[in-house]
Design goal:
This protein is α/β, with parallel strands linked by helices. It has two domains: 128 residues, Response regulator (Rossmann fold, 3-Layer(aba) Sandwich), CATH 3.40.50; 191 residues, Rossmann fold (3-Layer(aba) Sandwich), CATH 3.40.50. It contains eleven helices and 16 strands. Strand 13, helix 9 and strand 14 form a beta-alpha-beta unit. The N and C termini lie far apart (67 Å).
């Protein structure tokens, strides 16, 4: 079995040595470089030829976001953001790095006295191993998509009542494109499951609101969803629709996830029937597929991201295999299709 080559980028010498200890003791992984700045990483990138990069965010000189942009434009390599900070500025940099092509964000394992150390260390090594297999592509700097308002549109009466979106690896970047392509007057509530480390949820929600046309609401108690808003579950909670609104709970993980896209989609199918509209985007594993099938079985409309654009064609592929998908579309076409399904082209008088 091929050993996975890892490049560590971390400015703190103490933490860098700590990461070297964790990664170096995993038989799946081999450290091919360990540097304290993004500039050093770029200098050795071709020579080290890593399969995956462990990237800190707060670095002297070029930060982790800028480094991710350069790497994805010049020598695309899977990047796992490893951050200890949930400060506002660091979270902004982290989320922008995910938009620029980094695959996921993880907490740094803390000292050996921490009860969570073993779990965090194992999660880090496993994610580095898994993400090293993702085939990333060259990316240029992207401009935030916008949808120019021209003629006002009105919703089709009575068909689709809510939109559910589920995504995982590669999701933040995909969400920017999809949500940015919808009009600010989009007529449905948007229910979202994005698999992300729970400590980064607040920063993710704040960042998403800054890059899409809609307010983003973290659901902690019962909420009646309103059109033109995005709803995400509180940390480590499932998001369900029922009893007239959205609720969260700490039920067992489904497909090893909490929140689970399958839980959300199943609740939409049960509550809305043909009024449910479900979209399954890029992601590793199979979460969301069974729930999407229930939406389709009850007459709702289902869309999966096509393999041609998915960073990881895992969750969409699982849905296709189940026969859960009405349409498979490349990412740039999904927002336009959602507008076709939910808006009429009649001008408002």
């Amino acid at each position: 079995m091929k050993t996975i080559r890892v490049l560590i980028v971390e400015d703190s010498k103490v933490i860098r040595e700590f990461l070297e200890h964790i990664i170096g003791n995993d038989p799946r992984l081999e450290i091919v470089g360990s540097v304290g700045t993004a500039e050093e990483a770029l200098l050795i990138l071709d020579r080290a030829s890593p399969d995956v990069i462990s990237m800190d965010i707060r670095l002297p000189g070029m930060n982790g976001f800028e480094a991710t942009q350069r790497i994805m434009a010049e020598r695309p390599t899977p990047i796992v953001v490893v951050s200890a900070s949930v400060e506002k500025e660091d979270l902004r940099i982290t989320m922008n790095a995910l938009q620029a092509g980094a695959l996921t964000v993880l907490e740094k394992p803390v000292g050996t006295s921490s009860a969570e150390y073993e779990a965090l260390a194992e999660r880090l090594c496993t994610q580095l191993a898994i993400m090293s297999q993702v085939k990333v592509v060259r990316r240029r700097s992207t401009v935030r998509p916008t949808h120019r308002l021209e003629r006002p549109l009105v919703p089709y009466p009575g068909r689709h009542r809510m939109l559910g979106i589920v995504t995982s690896t590669g999701g933040p970047s995909a969400l920017v494109q999809l949500l940015g392509g919808l009009r600010p007057d989009f007529p449905l509530p948007i229910l979202l499951v994005q698999h992300i480390t729970s400590s980064f949820l607040e920063g993710f929600a704040s960042w998403l609101e800054s890059v899409c046309p809609f307010p983003v609401v973290i659901v902690r108690d019962f909420v009646v969803p309103a059109r033109g808003k995005v709803y995400v579950a509180a940390q480590d909670r499932h998001l369900r629709l029922g009893c007239g609104g959205l609720q969260v709970d700490a039920g067992d993980p489904v497909c090893a996830q909490r929140p689970s896209g399958t839980v959300l989609f199943e609740s939409m199918a049960k509550t809305l029937g043909a009024g449910a509209l479900g979209v399954l985007l890029t992601g590793m594993g199979e979460d969301g597929a069974e729930g999407l099938l229930q939406i389709r079985d009850r007459g709702g409309h289902t869309i999966a991201e096509d393999e041609s654009t998915a960073v990881v064609y895992g969750m969409p592929a699982a849905a296709v295999r189940l026969g859960a998908v009405c349409e498979s579309l490349p990412l740039p076409a999904i927002s336009a299709r959602l507008l076709e399904l939910t808006l009429s082209k009649r001008e408002v008088a």
